[in-house]
C-alpha cells in the first residue's frame, strides 16, 4: 500500500491529531502494513467477506 | 510449589499465610530489581491480609484453596486505593476508588494481593521503552518475556507470587505463559467479568489466570468466573468446578493439530520437533489425533488489528493521544495513531472477517474436541530484536507470524490455554496451545492437565541464581 507523508498527515488532521513530522514515517509504515494485510485478505476472500454480517462474537447467553 | 500444594499446607496450618507472603516479599526484594515484574508491591497491605487469613483459618473459617494464597495482578486491573498505571506515565498518579470484579472475587476467596505487575503500556504489546523498567525473562534476562501481561508471566515463573491475573486481547496471557514456561488461560469471552479493567478492546478483551500448573489455573478460574451485573457481556452459564474436571482421563478425546498454523517454513525446528513429540504423548494418553487446516484463520491478525486496536484507539485518542502524545511510549503512540487512521470501511471488513474466522473455528469443533498449535512459532526473541520490530526495522510478515497462532482463537472468542512443551536446544521455553469450544474450559483444562502429568515440564523452574547473576555480572 503506497501512502505519502502528506496523506497520513492530512488524515490525522481530520480527527484533530497532530503527529510530529519526524514520527509520520513510523505511523505511515504501520498503517500501510495494516492496509496491505487487509488488501491481501480482500484479494483472497473478498467474496466471502461480502456474504457475512459483521456481528461481534460476544453473545453471553447464546447456545453454541 | 503449586497453589494446590500450598493450600494443603495452609489448611493444615503447616504453613502460615504470613510466612508465605513474607517469603514472596523476600524473593521480590532479592530478584525484582533485575526482573522488573512488579510496578507496585503492597507489602503492608499483604501482610495485614495474611494475618487476617491466619486468624480465620485458626478459627476454623477456611474458605477454600485460595485462602491465604498470595497473587499479583496486571497493572491494568483496578485496585481500590492502590495505584493502577497501565504501565504508562500518563496514569502514574491514578488511584482507583473501586476494585475490579476479579479483585473482589479473589478477595472473597481469601487470596492475598501482593502487588501490581508490569505490562506493555495500556496492555497492547508494542512498548519500546517501559516506563517502570524493562521486564525480563527469568530463563534468560536478555530474552523477551513476551507481551503484554509480561510482569505476570515473569512473577509466576520466578516464584514472586503464586498466581497472576492477566488480560488477553490477542495473546497477552498466552504469550507470557509461553515465554516464561508457565500455564496461561484465555477464557471464553463472557466467562470472566471485565469490569474494572482499563482495556478498551470491548469485544475481544478477556481476563484470565497465569499459574505454575494446570490445576492451579483451574482453581483460579473457578474463583474469578461467573456472571457480573457490572459487565453486561458476562455469561449466565453455570461456573463449573474446573478442578474436578482434571480426571486424567482423556481417552477418546479428538484433537486436531492445525497444520497451517503449526508447520510453516518459518517454524523453528525445535518447535516442530516438540509439537510432534507432544502429539505422540497425547496419542499415548488415548487422544485421537487428527489434522485440520484453517485457511481463513491466517487472516486473523489483520482482522483483529484493524478492529480491536481501533476500538482501543478511539478511547485513547480523546483521552490522551491528542494532548499527551509525548507522554506515550513511541511504540504505543505509533500503533494507536495508525489505528486511528483506519478507514471505517476497512474496520467493517475486519469485523466481517472475524465472523468468518469464528465460523471456520466453530465448524472445526464439529469434528474435534480441541485444536492444537504451538503457542508461538519461535522461542522468545532477544529483547533487542523485539525493540527493532517495534521501531519498524522489520518485515510485516514477521509481525503476522508472531501473532499467527494466538489471534485466531481471540477472534473466535474461544478458550485457549498455553502450557509448557519443553525447551529449545539452547534452553528456551517452548509452549503448546490447546483451544476448545466456547465455554468448554473443562475439556481444555483436562487435556492440558493430562499432558502436563505425562511430561513434567512444569516441574522445571529458572535458576535465578544463575540467570540473574549472569545478567548482573554483565553489568546490565
Write up what this structure looks like.
The complex is a heterodimer of chains A (64) and B (476). Chain A is mostly helical and 64 residues long. Chain A has a domain at 5-46. Chain A has two helices and no strands. The longest helix of chain A is centred in the middle third of the chain and has 27 residues, at 24-50. Chain A is extended, with a radius of gyration of 17 Å. Chain B is globular, with a radius of gyration of 21 Å. Chain B has one domain: Amidase signature (AS) domain (Amidase signature (AS) enzymes), CATH 3.90.1300. In chain B, α4 links the parallel β2 and β3 (112-117). Chain B has helices spanning 3-11, 17-35, 43-58, 101-108, 150-157, 174-180, 214-224, 269-284, 300-305, 308-321, 330-340, 344-364, 383-391, 396-403, 407-412, 441-455, 464-473, and strands spanning 38-41, 70-74, 112-117, 163-168, 183-186, 206-211, 254-258, 288-292, 370-374, 416-423, 429-436. Chain B has 476 residues and is an alpha/beta fold. Chain B contains 17 helices and eleven strands. The model of chain B has no long low-confidence stretch (mean pLDDT 96). The interface between A and B is large, with 41 and 54 residues.
Helix-strand blueprint:
The complex is a heterodimer of chains A (64) and B (476).
Chain A: H1 5-14, H2 24-50
Chain B: H1 3-11, H2 17-35, E1 38-41, H3 43-58, E2 70-74, H4 101-108, E3 112-117, H5 150-157, E4 163-168, H6 174-180, E5 183-186, E6 206-211, H7 214-224, E7 254-258, H8 269-284, E8 288-292, H9 300-305, H10 308-321, H11 330-340, H12 344-364, E9 370-374, H13 383-391, H14 396-403, H15 407-412, E10 416-423, E11 429-436, H16 441-455, H17 464-473
Parallel strand pairs in B: 2-3, 2-4, 7-8, 7-9
Antiparallel strand pairs in B: 1-3, 4-6, 5-6, 5-10, 9-11, 10-11
Amino acid at each position: 500500500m503506497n501512502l505519502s507523508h502528506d496523506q497520513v498527515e492530512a488524515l490525522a488532521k481530520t480527527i484533530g491529531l497532530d503527529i510530529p513530522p519526524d514520527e509520520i514515517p513510523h505511523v505511515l509504515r504501520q498503517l500501510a502494513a495494516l492496509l496491505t494485510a487487509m488488501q491481501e485478505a480482500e484479494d483472497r476472500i473478498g467474496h466471502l467477506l461480502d456474504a457475512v454480517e459483521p456481528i461481534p462474537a460476544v453473545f453471553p447467553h447464546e447456545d453454541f | 510449589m503449586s497453589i494446590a500444594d500450598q493450600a494443603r499446607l495452609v489448611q493444615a496450618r503447616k504453613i502460615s499465610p504470613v510466612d508465605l507472603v513474607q517469603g514472596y516479599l523476600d524473593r521480590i526484594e532479592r530478584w525484582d530489581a533485575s526482573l522488573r515484574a512488579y510496578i507496585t508491591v503492597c507489602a503492608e497491605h499483604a501482610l495485614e491480609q495474611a494475618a487476617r487469613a491466619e486468624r480465620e483459618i485458626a478459627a476454623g473459617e477456611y474458605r477454600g484453596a485460595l485462602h491465604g494464597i498470595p497473587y499479583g495482578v496486571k497493572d491494568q486491573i483496578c485496585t481500590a486505593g492502590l495505584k493502577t498505571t497501565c504501565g504508562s506515565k500518563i496514569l502514574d498518579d491514578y488511584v482507583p476508588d473501586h476494585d475490579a470484579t476479579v479483585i473482589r472475587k479473589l478477595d472473597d476467596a481469601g487470596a492475598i494481593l501482593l502487588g501490581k505487575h508490569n505490562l506493555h503500556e495500556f496492555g497492547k504489546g508494542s512498548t519500546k521503552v517501559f516506563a517502570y523498567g524493562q521486564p525480563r525473562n527469568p530463563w534468560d534476562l536478555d530474552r523477551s518475556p513476551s507481551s503484554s501481561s509480561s510482569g505476570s508471566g515473569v512473577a509466576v515463573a520466578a516464584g514472586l507470587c503464586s498466581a497472576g491475573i492477566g488480560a488477553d486481547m490477542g495473546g497477552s496471557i498466552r504469550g507470557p505463559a509461553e515465554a516464561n514456561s508457565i500455564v496461561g488461560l484465555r477464557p471464553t469471552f463472557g466467562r470472566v467479568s471485565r469490569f474494572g479493567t482499563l482495556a478498551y478492546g470491548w469485544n475481544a478483551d478477556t481476563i484470565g489466570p497465569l499459574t505454575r500448573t494446570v490445576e492451579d489455573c483451574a482453581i483460579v478460574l473457578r474463583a474469578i468466573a461467573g456472571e457480573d451485573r457490572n459487565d453486561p457481556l458476562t455469561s449466565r452459564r453455570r461456573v463449573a468446578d474446573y478442578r474436578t474436571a482434571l480426571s486424567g482421563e482423556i481417552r477418546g478425546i479428538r484433537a486436531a493439530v492445525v497444520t497451517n498454523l503449526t508447520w510453516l517454513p518459518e517454524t523453528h525446528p525445535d518447535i516442530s520437533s516438540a509439537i510432534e513429540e507432544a502429539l505422540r504423548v497425547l496419542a499415548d494418553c488415548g487422544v485421537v489425533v487428527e489434522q485440520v487446516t484453517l485457511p481463513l484463520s491466517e487472516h486473523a491478525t489483520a482482522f483483529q488489528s484493524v478492529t480491536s486496536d481501533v476500538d482501543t484507539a478511539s478511547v485513547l485518542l480523546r483521552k490522551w493521544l491528542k494532548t499527551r502524545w509525548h507522554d506515550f511510549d513511541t511504540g504505543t503512540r505509533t500503533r494507536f495513531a495508525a489505528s486511528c487512521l483506519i478507514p471505517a470501511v476497512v474496520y467493517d471488513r475486519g469485523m466481517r472477517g472475524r465472523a468468518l474466522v469464528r465460523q471456520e473455528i466453530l465448524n472445526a469443533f464439529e469434528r474435534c474436541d480441541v485444536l492444537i498449535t504451538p503457542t508461538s512459532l519461535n522461542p522468545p526473541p532477544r529483547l533487542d530484536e523485539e525493540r527493532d520490530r517495534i521501531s519498524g526495522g522489520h518485515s510485516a510478515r514477521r509481525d503476522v507470524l508472531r501473532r499467527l497462532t494466538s489471534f485466531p482463537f481471540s477472534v473466535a472468542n474461544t478458550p485457549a490455554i498455553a502450557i509448557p512443551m519443553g525447551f529449545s536446544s539452547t534452553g528456551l521455553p517452548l509452549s503448546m496451545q490447546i483451544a476448545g469450544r466456547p465455554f468448554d474450559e473443562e475439556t481444555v483444562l483436562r487435556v492440558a492437565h493430562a499432558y502436563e502429568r505425562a511430561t513434567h515440564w512444569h516441574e522445571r523452574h529458572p535458576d535465578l541464581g544463575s540467570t540473574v547473576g549472569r545478567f548482573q555480572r554483565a553489568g546490565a
